[in-house]
Design a protein that fits this description.
This protein is an alpha+beta fold. 40% of the residues lie in helices and 15% in strands. The protein contains 10 helices and 13 strands. Strands 7-8-2-9 form a 4-stranded antiparallel beta sheet, with helices on both faces. Strands 1-3-6 form a 3-stranded antiparallel beta sheet. Helix 5 runs antiparallel to helix 6 and helix 5 packs across helix 7. The protein is globular, with a radius of gyration of 23 Å.
Length: 301
């Protein structure tokens, strides 16, 4: 009863363990799961799971994990470095930003455990993770009134160290369905990036986006195609081409649902405004405006 009462007192909506009321003096499933939830990022369990996965899979997405604050900066710098490399090579770059709806909550437990086994996670470690994610019970509290407990049928626990790692392992095979694109993920933020050297490259990126949508259906994930964003980085030599009347078809993409993605001037990427002209004016202006507001200054016109 201690775990349940502690959760209710703190108004937590997720209750760990298979049984909401479990009284045991030993380290049973409930106490094990609570320990995993608060495990440090460098713990042996997390490191073992990550190392096993990296040894069995092409895990570029795992490098952009979301466990440490520095990981966000690394993910963004790595992304922009790729864009600048393309620019220095004289290539344009197209980036399609995907929108995964409630991604952490949509993780299929059966598929996740199957993928973990494929990556080499097995034995007691796999059973431990199974206890961590399967048949978790949750309640909802409104004005001090608690709902009846209900089993969580999908998803990985948020607010834990292991949760983001399990999610990235779940979507790690996304790279296998694309041909030309670089798939980069930070937590549930995912983007497709491709260098555009010739007309056929836009066709391949279009096919990659379609393949990703198909993958999401097969893996029980939900993509909000209406929230996809498209940013294209063009070189100076491409400017004349944009003004031609027949090039419009090459400067946009269409989702499987028929939604047209037209190039935007800027997109917010991991909290930073990236502009298609390679400049940082929009980001600098936003920071300056925020600082001015905090300090109470007024602009003089």
């Amino acid at each position: 009863m201690h775990v349940r009462n502690k959760l209710v007192e703190n108004f937590l909506t997720v209750q760990n363990g298979k049984h909401i009321c479990q009284t045991t003096g030993s380290a049973g499933p409930t106490s094990q799961l609570v320990a995993i939830s608060h495990m440090p990022a460098n713990s042996s369990l997390v490191c073992t799971c990550s190392n096993l996965a990296n040894s069995r899979a092409q895990t570029r997405t795992l490098l952009n994990g979301g466990v440490k604050n520095s990981a966000r900066s690394f993910a963004l710098l790595s992304h922009y470095d790729t864009i600048l490399r393309d620019l220095n090579s004289g290539d344009e770059t197209d980036v399609i930003y995907l929108d995964l709806s409630k991604a952490f909550d949509k993780v299929d437990h059966g598929l996740l455990l199957k993928k973990l086994k494929h990556y080499g996670v097995g034995g007691k470690l796999l059973e431990w993770i199974r206890e961590f994610i399967v048949k978790r019970r949750q309640i909802v509290t409104v004005n001090g009134v608690h709902s009846d407990p209900a089993d969580g049928l999908s998803g990985v626990p948020q607010g834990t160290v292991l949760g983001p790692l399990l999610f990235l392992l779940y979507i790690n095979d996304l790279e296998k369905v694309v041909s030309i694109s670089v798939v980069a993920s930070f937590a549930d933020d995912t983007r497709l990036l491709a260098p555009i050297r010739e007309e056929g490259d836009t066709v391949l990126l279009q096919e990659d986006m379609n393949s990703v949508v198909t993958w999401s259906v097969e893996n029980n994930m939900v993509l909000h195609e209406g929230k996809f964003e498209f940013l294209c980085y063009r070189t100076g030599s491409f400017k004349w081409f944009e003004e031609m009347p027949f090039t419009d078809q090459y400067l946009k993409y269409t989702t499987p649902a028929g939604i047209t993605l037209c190039p935007q001037l800027s997109v917010r990427d991991l909290g930073v405004i990236l502009s298609s002209d390679y400049h940082w004016r929009a980001q600098i202006n936003q920071i300056a405006a925020g600082a001015t507001s905090i300090l109470g200054f007024r602009s003089i016109s």
